[in-house]
Amino acid sequence: MMQSGVCFLILAMLLTPAVDGVAKILSAEHTPMMIAFLRYLTAGTIALAIARSTGRRIEVARGDRLGQLLRTALIMGAMTALISALGMVPMAKAVGGFLIAPIVSGLLGILVWREPPTSTRLAGSAISFLGAAVLLRPEAGLELGCVFALIGGALLGTYLAATRGAKSQTDALSTLAVQSLLGAGLIAPFALSTGLPVLTPALFLGAIALGGVSAICHFLTVAAYQRADATILAPFLYFNLLTAMAVGFFWFGESIGAASLAGLCAIAAGGLVTLADPRRLSLPVALRIRARAA
């Protein structure tokens, strides 16, 4: 169960920067609110189409409507902040600002949901965090785009922890459909305040790409947090930097140096450490001590 959750999250994190790349291109002509609106409206429509074609019902959790509204507001705020950052700073910095999300999610998982803070989980989170810091190579001073990215990361971390707490409420498809359409409805007054955009082929294809890949990533992320603790999954959120660096290099001309490669290795190492069972690691040591005593 835990391993499947990790695999789901890694796949989602590898796909996410592709959505960010499309959003970065669209941000040259459209507001962050409009891009977020199109993203979630399309994702919700896709979820409804899947439900209809498979005969599944879309359910809204009873007794959790306030929680659903709160989680939707959190994810919409996070994504709007990220899209704003993408239009202000290089993609690596915008995506990298989200590295605060695993820290927030992990801390809330321990403090609110009482998830056990094992030594391997804490060590894995620390190693991945250091790897992300090396990868990003933060400079002196803080740009407005970086501030938006950090705010978005904090909101995303809170959302992920809240999703973990709501794991028994609805299935992933219902969560995707309800949250995406509800989010599109919440942000619609702001997105459409200046009127409807001209539906060009580029905007249409961009909206389909945003919604389609977002639907996949959203489903994978919710499914992951239904199967594993937030503290276990926290380091693997950094894997989106792998694709972010690739997208930045091939799409926007950003280079990857030796420090970046070292950071990526540390991120992967942190994920592997998190998967380790501290009881199994301590067993060989205990056996050696017992053998010496004998």
What structural category do the secondary elements indicate?
A: mainly alpha
Instruction: Spell the H/E element sequence.
Output: HHHHHHHHHHHHH
Give helix % range.
over 70%
Radius of gyration: 20 Å
Summarize the helices and strands and which ones pair or pack:
Layout: H1 2-26, H2 32-54, H3 65-86, H4 91-96, H5 100-111, H6 119-136, H7 144-165, H8 172-191, H9 201-225, H10 230-233, H11 240-252, H12 258-275, H13 278-293
Helix pairs in contact: 1-9, 1-11, 2-3, 2-8, 2-9, 3-7, 3-8, 5-7, 6-12, 8-9
Describe the fold and architecture.
This protein has one domain. It has 13 helices and no strands. It has helices at residues 2-26, 32-54, 65-86, 91-96, 100-111, 119-136, 144-165, 172-191, 201-225, 230-233, 240-252, 258-275, 278-293.
Please give a handful of descriptors for the protein shown.
single chain; 294 residues; mainly alpha; 13 helices; 0% strand; disordered C terminus
Brief characterization of the structure:
With 294 residues, this protein is mostly helical. It is built from 13 helices and no strands. The two termini are 39 Å apart.
